[in-house]
Amino acid sequence: MQSPNFVILYVDQPQVSGAFYQALFDREPVESSPTFVLFVLDNGFKFGLWSRHTAKPAVAATGGGAEIVFQLEKPDAVDATHADWAGRGLSILQTPTDLDFGRTFVALDPDKHRLRVYCMNDVGNIQS
């Protein structure tokens, strides 16, 4: 089986969400229309934002049922990213905390999709 290389979030307003992720990713989308915005990240992973009002088949789910996860190298980078994102006005669901897997926090995008930032503990470190 091939590895996934593309995720699509269903959003209320693709252009609003696109502007949010453009600032978060510090990159321009490769495609942008009123109903769909697409980013291609440095590792080739594709990140799409599709209008929940025009997706076929119809979308029943809303944000919050999954997480977009960002792995960082050091615990203090988690704290710095939290400070940056909070300063940008992102809604913070969980402030930086130490859990069994490492240091983490959770923010929300405009559609309430969860954005988890973490640094894995050295013990049992999963390779990316």
Keywords:
single chain, 128 residues, alpha/beta, 4-stranded mixed β-sheet, 37% strand
Give structural notes.
The chain is 20% helix and 37% strand. The chain has two helices and eight strands; from the N terminus they run E-H-E-E-E-E-H-E-E-E.
Summarize the structure.
Helices cover 20% and strands 37% of the residues.
What is the averaged pLDDT score?
Answer: 92
Quickly count the helices: 2
Poorly predicted runs are: none
Radius of gyration: 15 Å
Layout of strands and helices, then pairs:
Layout: E1 6-11, H1 14-25, E2 31-32, E3 36-40, E4 46-51, E5 67-71, H2 75-87, E6 91-99, E7 102-108, E8 114-120
Parallel strand pairs: 1-4, 5-8
Antiparallel strand pairs: 2-3, 3-4, 6-7, 7-8
